[in-house]
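Researcher: Sequence recovery benchmark, item below. Answer with residues only.
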C-alpha cells in the first residue's frame, strides 16, 4: 500500500514538476526505505537471539521446547553436537551399518533433550556431545 502511494506521488512529481525533482525525490525515498529495512533486520536478529559462535561453530540447534542457552563450539577438524546423537557416525572413517539397535527404556531423555543450559566445546581434532549418544559410532575409524 505504501509502495503504491510512493509510486503515485513520484508520478505526480514527474508530471507537475520536472524529471530532476522526481529523481531527487526517488533517491530520498529509496534511502529511507533502505534505512527502515536495515533497522528492521537488526531488530529481528536481536530478538531471535541468533547464535554467536567462535571458530568453526557447528551451530546451535535445540530440541523443541528447550529452555535456556545452547553454546556449541568446535575447533579445527573437531566435531561438536549440542544435543542428542542417535544412529550417527561422528569422526573420520566412522561407519554405522546394519539395522538400528532396539532402544532401551528411558533412553534419549538426558541432558540434550531440554536442559536449561548446554555448553559444548570440542578442541582441535576432538569430539564432544552435549546430550545422550545412542546407537552411534564416535571417533575416527569407529564402527557400529
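Model:
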Amino acid at each position: 500500500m505504501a509502495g503504491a502511494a510512493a509510486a503515485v506521488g513520484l508520478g505526480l512529481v514527474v508530471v507537475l514538476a520536472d524529471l530532476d525533482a522526481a529523481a531527487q525525490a526517488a533517491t530520498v525515498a529509496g534511502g529511507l526505505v533502505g534505512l527502515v529495512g536495515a533497522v528492521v533486520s537488526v531488530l529481528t536478529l536481536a530478538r531471535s537471539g541468533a547464535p554467536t559462535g567462535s571458530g568453526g561453530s557447528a551451530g546451535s540447534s535445540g530440541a523443541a521446547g528447550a529452555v535456556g542457552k545452547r553454546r556449541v563450539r568446535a575447533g579445527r577438524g573437531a566435531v561438536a553436537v549440542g544435543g542428542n546423537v542417535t544412529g550417527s557416525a561422528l569422526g573420520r572413517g566412522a561407519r554405522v551399518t546394519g539395522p538400528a539397535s532396539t532402544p532401551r527404556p528411558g533412553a534419549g531423555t538426558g541432558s540434550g533433550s531440554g536442559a536449561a543450559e548446554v555448553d559444548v566445546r570440542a578442541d582441535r581434532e576432538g569430539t564432544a556431545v552435549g546430550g545422550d549418544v545412542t546407537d552411534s559410532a564416535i571417533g575416527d575409524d569407529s564402527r557400529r
